[in-house]
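Morning!

As promised:
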Amino acid sequence: MNSAQETTLMNGMISFKGKGIASLLAILSTICTATAEESKFIPIEQDLNSIRSSSAPAFTILDINPTSIERPLNPRDFSTSILSSVGDSESSLPGNLAIEFAPYWWTGRPDIEFDDLLHDSSLGDNFVRNLSFSLASSERKEGESASTDLAFGFRTTLLSGKPSKKLSESISVLQNGQLDIARIFASEACEAARESGLDTDEDPSCKKALSLVEAKFIKSVGEYRKLVDKRVGFQLDLAAATSYRFPDNSTSERERFKTGAWITASYTPDSGETGGLQFIGLARFISENTDSDDSNDNVDAGLRLLWQSNKQPLAVSVEYLSRRVDEGNNTERYAGILEYQINPGLNFVASFGKNFRPENSSEDLFVVGGINFNFGSKPTILIPSLQRPKS
Amino acid sequence: MKIVRLITNYDVKGNKAINLTVTSGNGQLAAHLAKIGTKTIAEGVKLSEQIASKGTALKGKTLKITSVVTALNSKTKNVNVSYGLKGGAKSEKWTSKELLDTDQTIIFYAEIKFT
């Protein structure tokens, strides 16, 4: 971690790394700007389960996540993050790009019913349905020289847990709501309107009756939505990634930088609510090339305890990792992490603690904070307003 | 609420029983209602029903199916409803599909005239 305070927008995130209160003040200032801009957009109900920093393996191998132990994540068909170094770059244009995609869902899957996804499937089905690939880049500046890191990764879920008991009970409420809409749509009044060549919306009595059941149904969707993405019980994720470094941004100088694979196991008790506790464990192997053309193999093992609020889009967690270094001193990392969803797609993330101690350095205190914005299935992109004005 | 329509015919030649299936895929939440005239012949999250013991009994009638689908599966925007009929001159399968944002709801409406 650099000792100098540094502000970067990267990994779909504006992040501030430093050692002082100034870092956190800068974060709060940026949140205020972002929130003011955000209010121009149509509000969507906040989804507690989407509070999280990006956890694509390509990000993880580049070491640009505020947390080292990520929660299992529901992959989207396509999601993108723009990465830019605001503090370091003279350009206001985003300098880096990261994408993650789940190709299985690019084409229609007419044979997969709602129940098939609700309940845990076979290992093979889980592997294929949850497989996602990620590509990421990160610009690095050391003194006068600049380099770019490119990373490629994949991840999947082998065991996906189960829906909460409350969701299982709620499904029939939602399906009854859908049937109410179907009954009104197929009623004699609406049928008569269709037969006379009118659209459903053009017949006042049909439109009124449909509006009433639709409003009730939409309310139910909003109420139960928060439970849909929440999985309880035991989950197991598998991920791997590799990265290449391009010193002086030259392809001829390309060198493999890091390669790693890891498994993440988590257990979520069924609290009957949207929030609650989650226990997450990680085992990770990373091989890192050193300047002397040797590789340095690290094995990480860690635990994270996470609590998510039922009422507020807030999650607080602590994590501990132990790193066994192949040729060097073993080291450890512990951190406290706070995640708050300002708006859908716009999350505030802060972590602080003691990082892995690099060789020949005593610096290990870190404060990382920032705004993480995810876009893809639920896009909200406010890149220009998030950039810190140049001094 | 967006409506996607399918208007088609089904040849009920012969004396075999006519069976209807209606399903929705892409991991999305759905419910279906099937009517012939004013009579509801089936409703539920997935339909698989014998709708007539002899095909000829349906000749000239119209089967109307209303399906309400909500995109709760945030992995994809694809939504679809598949309709199948067996027992007539030949087995037929139709699929209506659309792209829908997460949490949005759509109505798929099918009219199948028995000829």
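Residues 204-228 of chain A form the longest helix (25 residues).

Hope this helps with the figure draft.
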